[in-house]
Design brief:
By secondary structure, this protein is α+β, with helices and mostly antiparallel strands. The chain is built from 25 helices and 7 strands. The protein has a domain of 199 residues: Histidine kinase-like ATPase, C-terminal domain (Heat Shock Protein 90). A hairpin with a 2-residue loop joins β4 and β5. α13 packs antiparallel against α14. It is extended and about 115 Å long.
Length: 717
């Protein structure tokens, strides 16, 4: 950089530098020499800011530009630089520096050059001792810190400008600072604050008739709706913003925000799994980004296309897009967006089973997320690291990161829930305000016409009253008949539903007390007595009576606690162990987050599955090898997800043995259980029970896994 501004003058370095300053920036030099240009770090910052002047006019001297930028952005930059030559030192020059700072940071994606222009604004404020220009420098420093992911510093700068605007009554700049602060709070995961500040900004933009400000705030609110998974509302906000932008003059910043709308529409359709529609928007935005010379939006679009390809399972292609986006963001020091790329690259390497590379990028993302205290980024990084270590079977680390993910997710979701209430309240208040304004505007007109309307109304009342009464009576009669019919239909449906549930409960009870099982148990007790094994017989009889008691107790109610259901299940397995010594081992695991005494589920839904596992899977194992049953219970939304896995002979072999058997009893337990679950499920799932055949590498059966989706029931009082 410095070598480009040296001349062939034989004078010393400082004199040469002074001459160059005087030639290109006489308005900055004071008395031919800038005040204390080399004093400490602040002096160096002053010198760097002066370099901005020289860079602004480098093309006039035939020098090579620092960065090749596509035509629209370069035209905007050249136009602004040409204005610097003919404008005097003052607020106007600070405004041009600000526009250059914004263009380099937001469009070109060159944060380093943008910072030099912000430094120039600060130097101008110091030179003129202007609080107004100093506040402007704080705005652009905040913008740069935001793009670099330094959110705390960004908020400090914006707060300083807000304090100045409040003191001076400058509502125009106040609205812009509020908007930027809302964007920073969204990046930090403070969605409630972000939304509240956004509506304050909109109110000020509307008061100042700044439709561009309203449009960009609509984009931001659309992004917040996207975080809440309310994609229809999000898409609506983007199209409202696009309508406003289409009505404005097509300057660079308007084009840039139209581009952001296209990107965000692609994001929304991607979340709705409409990937082809999303790719159309992304491809359009990629072409426009490159034509405008916006590296920031180019990187954003590349990253989004990578996400779509990941969703479609095209991981190699996705990795190329994510690495391109990361390279652009890394070079431009866009720390706020670099986090997204680091997580995406790490996740894609995980899909490609390149686990060391995946860990490298994810741990880097974790470090940067902690540095800038970005809760959404921390949440996503913890989640992806948990998935990575789980894939590698490092379950300890997977569990640790999962716990961190759950804690961070709960933090963000709590704020998002509050935000939803705030959105509804704000919409309600805004609607009421609009109604009040409309009423006030028409009040005079209503008063002027009231006498005329009153006279006409009196004539019509007498004739219309009779007609109204007749129509009202007819409507009441029809409505009442419909209500009666609806109530009757509901009663019939409810009675039919209760009848079906009762029938299934009784069938389930009969299936639980399997006659063959009872016979075998009694026969086993009798055999023990005949052999003189009175102690074993007594133990067997005690466990058998406990099982029967639990079955009958659970049958009295439609919903039981998880603790009671697990006790019944364990009692049944222990009884089978006594009947078949050495043949059965079991493990029962319930997620610690589930309250077993406060969680209710339909009674007797797990025992038929365990019975199938023992009788049709484990009992047929050869060479007296021991069978094992594992039962895992965890909660998923408003359901319990129960997985029962055995190492028996598998369904195919069990069916073959059943076909050869003389007794071809058809077990109805599983079918009845599935019908009960489907009746009780709020979501009316097509498949409440999923059965998976487990096989080894040689495609030999090694067991069966049954996954049951159990709706959490209400306590039966």
């Amino acid at each position: 950089m410095i070598s480009e501004i040296r001349t062939d003058n034989k004078a010393g370095g400082l004199e040469t530098f002074q001459l160059v300053i005087q030639k290109y920036s006489p308005d900055v030099a004071i008395g031919g020499l800038y005040k204390t240009p080399w004093r400490g770090s602040g002096g160096m910052r002053n010198v760097v800011a002066i370099l901005v002047y020289l860079l602004s006019f480098s093309s006039l001297e035939g020098q090579t530009p620092l960065k090749i930028v596509s035509t629209p952005a370069q035209l905007e930059i050249d136009s602004l630089k040409s204005l610097l030559k003919n404008i005097s030192v003052g607020p106007g020059k600070a405004e041009i520096y600000g526009e250059l700072c914004f263009t380099y940071a937001g469009t070109v994606g060159d944060v380093e050059v943008a910072r030099l222009y912000a430094d120039s604004i600060k130097l101008l404020a110091d030179q003129l001792k202007s609080e107004s220009i100093l506040a402007t420098s704080n705005y652009y420093y905040g913008l740069i810190e935001r793009y670099e992911g330094k959110y705390s510093e960004a908020l400090d700068h914006f707060q300083q400008q807000i304090e100045y605007c409040n003191a001076s009554g400058d509502s125009s700049r106040l609205a812009s600072s509020l908007f930027q602060m809302a964007v920073v709070h969204q990046s930090l995961g403070n969605y409630e604050q972000s939304l509240a500040i956004s509506y304050r900004a909109i109110e000020m933009y509307e008061r100042n008739r700044s439709f561009y400000g309203v449009a960009i705030t609509f984009i931001h609110i659309g992004n917040l709706f996207g975080r809440l998974k309310k994609f229809d509302e999000s898409i609506s906000m983007y199209y409202q913003s696009l309508t406003i932008l289409d009505s404005l003059k097509a300057v660079l910043k308007v084009k840039m925000n139209k581009l952001r709308v296209l990107i965000n529409l692609g994001n929304s359709y991607s979340q709705l799994k409409q990937f082809e529609k999303a790719r159309i928007f992304y491809n359009r935005s990629l072409v426009i980004s490159r034509s405008l010379g916006s590296m920031r939006t180019t990187a954003t679009t590349l990253s989004n296309i990578g996400n779509v390809l990941n969703a479609l399972g095209q991981y190699d292609s996705a990795l190329e897009y994510h690495l391109q986006a990361l390279s652009i963001r890394d070079q431009a020091s866009e720390k706020d967006k670099m986090l997204v790329s680091l997580i995406s690259v790490g996740e894609t390497y995980m899909f490609l089973k390149e686990y060391p590379l995946s860990a490298q990028y994810l741990l880097r993302a974790l470090s940067v997320s902690k540095e800038f205290q970005s809760k959404p980024a921390l949440r996503d990084t913890y989640h992806t690291l948990s998935a990575l270590y789980s894939t590698q079977r490092n379950y300890q680390k997977a569990y640790e990161y999962h716990q961190l993910f759950v804690a961070m997710k709960d933090s963000v979701l709590n704020e998002e829930t509050t935000q939803q209430l705030s959105v509804l309240q704000t919409k309600y208040e805004t609607g009421e305000k609009d109604k009040q304004i409309t009423l006030l505007a028409k009040e005079k007109e209503i008063q002027a016409k009231e006498m005329q309307r009153q006279a006409s109304l009196n004539k019509a009342i007498v004739a219309g009253l009779v007609l109204v009464i007749l129509v009202a009576a007819l409507v009441f009669y029809v409505f009442r008949q419909r209500l009666l019919l609806t109530a009757k239909n509901n009663e019939v449906k409810e009675a039919d539903f209760k009848r079906k549930v009762t029938e299934l409960e009784m069938k389930a009870l009969r299936a639980q007390i399997n006659p063959h099982f009872l016979f075998n148990c009694m026969n086993a007790i009798n055999l023990m007595i005949l052999k003189g094994e009175s102690k074993n017989a007594s133990l067997f009889l005690a466990k058998f009576s406990k099982l029967v008691r639990l079955i009958l107790e659970n049958a009295e109610t439609s919903a039981v606690t998880l603790e009671s259901e697990m006790a019944l299940l364990e009692s049944y397995i222990q009884l089978e162990e006594l009947r078949l010594p050495g043949k059965i081992g079991y493990r029962i695991s319930v997620d610690e987050s589930i309250g077993i005494q406060s969680t209710y589920l339909p009674s007797m839904v797990l025992q038929p599955v365990v019975e199938n596992a023992i009788w049709h899977g484990i009992m047929h194992k050869e060479n007296d090898s021991k069978g094992n049953i594992s039962i895992d219970v965890r909660q998923q939304d408003d359901q319990l997800l129960c997985t029962i896995e055995d190492n028996g002979v598998g369904r195919d072999r069990a069916q073959q043995l059943r076909d050869k058997s003389v007794l071809k009893n058809k077990s109805m337990g599983m079918k009845i259980t599935e019908e009960r679950l489907r009746l009780r499920s709020r979501k009316h799932m097509a498949q409440c029970i999923e059965i998976t055949d487990l096989k080894d590498t040689l495609n030999h059966a090694v067991g069966t896994r049954v996954t049951i989706h159990i709706p959490i029931a209400e306590q039966d009082d």
